[in-house]
Write a structure and sequence with these properties.
Blueprint lengths: L3 E5 L14 H9 L2 E4 L2 H11 L13 E4 L9 H4 L1 H4 L4 E4 L12 H9 L3 E4 L5 H9 L6 E3 L7 H18 L2 E5 L5 H11 L5 E6 L7 E6 H9 L11 E6 L1
Parallel strand pairs: 1-4, 1-5, 2-3, 2-4, 6-7
Antiparallel strand pairs: 7-10, 8-9, 8-10
Length: 243
Amino acid sequence: MPGTLYLIPNSLGPGELSHVIPEPVRAHAARLGCFVAENAKTARAFLKAVAVTHPLRTVLQEIDIRELNVNTPAAQLPALLAPLLDGRDAGLLSEAGVPAVADPGADLVRLAHQRGITVRPLVGPSSLLLALMASGLNGQSFAFHGYLPTDANDRAARLRQLEQRSRQDKQTQILIETPYRNEAMLEALATHCAPGTLICVATDLTLDTEFIRTAGAQQWKTEIAAGKMPAFRKKPTVFLFLA
């Protein structure tokens, strides 16, 4: 009988896991001897933090950690499920937040279903949902689009397209960006969105440096022109807007 694939959320940044990862989730993680992780180093740091309150089933160096990231060929996915097909439980661990959402784990989860492996999602922080909750924008209808084009003209065209969809469907649009391009993203939103379109910036969610603010595009544009850019350089940030 196959094992169970547990989808284990990670924290969104440094700090005690107990603040954001529930005790039962940490207990499940401590019992597992096999993980598929976006980054093995991050996974070991997570397990070391878990061990502060929940002793691991074996020494950290003996836990089987296999990497799955954006560069992993599809042909390698079956091998990652081999321990589960041999009857062992395993955990899928994201580098930050929840697995398989804005994360390369979704293909592995789909293959697990195809192979008859039970999948169990566990509770933990999702930066996308936390940002949506705190934005004041429409939480009944929303769409996540990941990264926009890096070319300025292509990005502007995509923003106008998404703003039209937002206006037509009253739908919140959710985006992320590579942290070093946060300023360029906010400038693009403020420049290319209509003045009254609401834009939310949500940075370092759950951390001591958390920053969340929603304002109209024109207000953001005025503040940016005055040199009042949020202090989010190189910090994980979620962008949301509603026309």
